[in-house]
Design a protein that fits this description.
- The protein is mainly α.
- About 45% of the residues lie in helices and about 0% in strands.
- It has a domain of about 35 residues.
- The protein contains 2 helices and no strands.
């Protein structure tokens, strides 16, 4: 009868993204997985570029070295 001109976008799950499928090497990876979605929301809301600052990568490596995953 009526055709929807603006159909809703499909719902995607965070665990379907490539980032969630990476192996966890230590505490830095856990912090990264929690902080990245928060940074993404801040970037979209405020127009900043927190996700690409580079400080997170250094912190991630330092935490992974200090607290590696025990297998």
């Amino acid at each position: 009868m009526f055709k929807d001109l603006n159909p809703p976008k499909p719902i995607t799950k965070p665990q379907d993204s490539i980032d969630w499928k990476e192996p966890i090497r230590g505490a830095g990876d856990v912090v990264h997985k929690v902080a990245q979605p928060i940074a993404r929301v801040i970037d979209k809301t405020l127009g900043t570029k927190i996700q690409k600052c580079g400080g997170c990568a250094k912190r991630r490596e330092a935490l992974n070295k200090a607290f590696p995953r025990k297998t």
